[in-house]
Structure prediction request, 994 residues.
Amino acid sequence: MFDSANLDHVVDKATWKKEEPVLREALLKAQLDLAAQKRFPVLVLVGGVEGAGKGEAVNKLLEWFDPRAVHVHAFGEPTDEERERPAMWRFWRGLPPRGRVGVFFGAWHTQPIVNRALGRTTEDGFENAIGDIVRFERMLADEGVLLLKFWFHLTRKQQKRRFKDLSSDPRTAWRVTDLEWKYHRSYDDFVPTAEQFLQRTSTGDAPWFVIPGADEHYRNLLFGKTLLASMQERLAQGAPPVPVDRTPAFPEPVDAVNVINTIDLKKKLSKAKFEKELEHWQGRLALLSRHKRFKKTSVVLVFEGADAAGKGGAIRRITGALDARVYQGIPVAAPTEEERAQPYLWRFWRHMPGRGRFVMFDRSWYGRLLVERVEGFCSESDWMRGYSEIVDFEQQMVDHGYIILKFWLQISQKEQLRRFKERERTAWKRFKITPEDWRNREKWDAYQGAVCDMIDRTSTDAAPWKVIAAEDKNLARVTILKTLVEAIEARLDLSKG
Amino acid sequence: MFDSANLDHVVDKATWKKEEPVLREALLKAQLDLAAQKRFPVLVLVGGVEGAGKGEAVNKLLEWFDPRAVHVHAFGEPTDEERERPAMWRFWRGLPPRGRVGVFFGAWHTQPIVNRALGRTTEDGFENAIGDIVRFERMLADEGVLLLKFWFHLTRKQQKRRFKDLSSDPRTAWRVTDLEWKYHRSYDDFVPTAEQFLQRTSTGDAPWFVIPGADEHYRNLLFGKTLLASMQERLAQGAPPVPVDRTPAFPEPVDAVNVINTIDLKKKLSKAKFEKELEHWQGRLALLSRHKRFKKTSVVLVFEGADAAGKGGAIRRITGALDARVYQGIPVAAPTEEERAQPYLWRFWRHMPGRGRFVMFDRSWYGRLLVERVEGFCSESDWMRGYSEIVDFEQQMVDHGYIILKFWLQISQKEQLRRFKERERTAWKRFKITPEDWRNREKWDAYQGAVCDMIDRTSTDAAPWKVIAAEDKNLARVTILKTLVEAIEARLDLSKG
Prediction:
């Protein structure tokens, strides 16, 4: 990767003076077109060796662009808030919306390279991290993000010279500390690891661009021109890049037996028993939420089910046991304008809980595999890739130590009708029933098929789907509470308590 | 993945008798349409637990289809020929061409699952293998292959019952050996590993389909209908799936300094010195090729360079030192009809050498990054993904123990003109110069830029590019021989010899 960059590249001052204003004007125009089109975001990743001028190049960029519309994020040590959430959360929250440019200093590439160079990870672990990154970046590309990855390079000699030059000038000497020299001494561990990383993570969708950093003018021109070429090419495409459908097709079911219609909907819980059980499980949950060890974990609950299946009621029986300061309920409806300007999962990532907290999603990211699939709100390619993207997403929660449970509340079509009618009769429930509910009902079979595919393809040991018989609300509410309590107790090693 | 498959699915005989003929007719029609369109191949992967009816289902398929146009490959223990080549070679050679259906029993998924279930690989190693497979299958999808992956499933109980049933019938008892019961005992190790594998390798392009195997009719109907649905969907698309261009753009060079024009073309080797050196290095090469330890490795050499750069001459100086039985020279020109019907790298995979052998490619897979890019013979997406696909391809050779060297023969534009003219003047060289050579010459700068990108992005420690000053043919030939000899000596640990 560094063959070209190891050569001496120089741009003289006259050339720079001639070319910079042209580049600057073109970049500003591209930025304005980007903002006007609002079709895609540009995400600029900046990495490289110390002293190669990453900061200077980004400063230049902010001179060239209208800086008010550029979001720059430097990712150093994670903050407390970031440490409490899956590692990728800090990057998700910084993603630029469509029409904007975002610059990430030291993003998801930093840790895998550093850990490998210092021998903290094995070769297999390194490859593994690379695989995660390739999948993540592919998802960004599928979501329309123009991802431009820049690696600022210096040869060993150039780095030494650079540090010496900086040290000898009193105005810049502060920039070269023991840490910089430590980096220099580890050059021969770091750079070959980085090279391997760059090669393995350079895909057609997101290749790395290596920027030689020794000559200021060459560096800035190459950086700016590379950014410009890619922005101009994408802007000229006009239409959004529609993914080609090359996915296999799911067949119609061969029989009527499936994972949601084979559960027993006839069982009931009497009111007296319900009240006793409810009190019992709510009491256990309340204690658990105050347990010392609970402070180290977090709970993510997903509730999905047909309209009127009782998602809200089940959630209220959980929150009823909790202090309002430890939970957040997220009702998921149509995305906001801000959310629509981001990759699909962004609107869910923003709600990832800190330690010792619960988040309940009343409908969730599974909308992509249910309503968006059935109603055709996204392309077949989009929902087909959704299965593995969601498995990846939840795996990140699991790896971070979250407890995650997903409840599918199953009711019969007949019971749904009864509840719809009841809602229409009851003044204070009437707002809950809309023409859309009736329309969705007509697609009952299509939805049920999509639910089965969803459960088959996204239920994992660590983030399982629990199919709940919800025909009887009391039974459903108690079952859910019990499942939740037992999952937390198992995690906190209190199962015998 | 097995939630639905763990349920009892049954299709009664009446339904089967009614539905099978309809399915059969539709499948046969799809096969004929596939052959008529010749736009894409269908590759059916078959995996699953023992006793789940994989063989029976494929036999059924051969009844339904015209079996003459279906290629079935069962991958058991590798043959001698296969063991001498990178692991994926056996699968590449079996790929069906466009317009055909291929069936693979036990393909690239088998080893990773078995090795993990038996504890032969770590979790990281398993994930790593999964990453390789996902990249490989994505490449197949990018190349237009319709990949349909079927996993035949039985519950533990169903498997036991199945083995007992087979054992108790004298006509089938032979099918259940100790090995089958051994598999049954390891069910609880194997199936969860397989489930994890299926989930991690189910992508939008190539999801797994789980086929419950307990009921023969259900199994066969679901298998056939799934295959049919995907074939029909793709056939109905009509036009080939053109990949959307969402790749970043490579910028124009900022200066005139690059990895091929900075080498010294002025050095020469006198005729006398050349003859002495040639004899020396050819002699060492001849001995090496007969060395005992050489029998365990293989050499792949790639020669690229502008027209008349001297590729053929350099190759002849190598082959001159070798026994004709140990090498093969592959001149690469436009692909044949058979080669055009396959994924891009297929035509190169077919020439991978066995142990103790040399293969010299006179032009190579790098055509995708050079002529195909510059002349627009493939889309930008195609050549952009080529960099990482080629790095993956060569990594497989390296992992298998091949010695791989890639020579770029650099000459000046002036020297090329001199050689062209010389060729035109010499009767026995005239056939080597065509109008195309003159046309390529006009795109000199574009080609040189593509060469630099190629070297930067595909030169690795284990499969390096060697830029050879080829202005003087004698010097080039000796340098190449010396580089080759030293690489083999280093590999055979003879460097001091």
